[in-house]
Amino acid sequence: MNAPLSVKNISVAYQKKPVLRDVSFQIPEGKLIGIIGPNGAGKSTLIKAILGLIPKLAGDVNIYGQPYKQQRKMVGYVPQRESVDWDFPTNALDVVMMGRYGHLGWFKRPGKKEKEMAMNALEKVGMESYADRQISQLSGGQQQRIFLARALAQDARLYFMDEPFVGVDAATEKAIISLLNELKNQGKTVLVVHHDLATVEEYFDWVMLLNEKLIEIGPTEDVFTKELLKETYGGKLAILDDKKEQSVILS
Ligand SMILES: Nc1ncnc2c1ncn2[C@@H]1O[C@H](COP(=O)(O)OP(=O)(O)OP(=O)(O)O)[C@@H](O)[C@H]1O
Q: Sorted alphabetically, which Pfam families does this protein's record hold (predicted)?
């Protein structure tokens, strides 16, 4: 079977400044995969390049063996919260329903079925009572939940989530991680840009270490090691010795 995601020799530059160099990897199906690396490592850029949201200098991306353009329906994307215009005048239900548009044919308006699926997704993230609320009037954590609901409503097979835990409280973080596990248990594959090194081993089956180039990708127990983390973060990272404590200090 084709891999959910296969990336070959991707390079990206902004105004000629290289940000990603020759990144290649494949991932297996049904895993939660953390994308880890320091600020500015190119994590968001990698996702955007995969989804064709920014131009690549070089490289190929295949989703289940086909280019992204042909596989759009299979892919869900939760962007970084601050990259979204939350003043856009629309309510929570409509934002979630947008997740269904890829499934509708030309000129078809969302109908009862779409609305039902969107409401189900809102229920899953505990936001059903906010369906009619303008998105500008939601808190940061609530907005994050709405975006997750949109991805759920889309019913994709491969998800990209850019820092879904930023700015959410502990309860929302728990709710999000149990949703991610639910997706995984349905055989879906989820890539998550993540910053909190202390939770990596608990949350992810696989880890990708990135800093302009791919340092390593593979099962968490093989890749989330002191040596490879040092290589990824350079001198900026001090790791307390007992790995079980997983205490990580950024100097
Ligand atoms: N639109 C842009 N124009 C110019 N440079 C950009 C642009 N977007 C990102 N960059 C630069 O590209 C590099 C990678 O940025 P990117 O957002 O992919 O990193 P990241 O690993 O997601 O960082 P963070 O952990 O801080 O979110 C950074 O040096 C950033 O300043």
A: ABC_tran
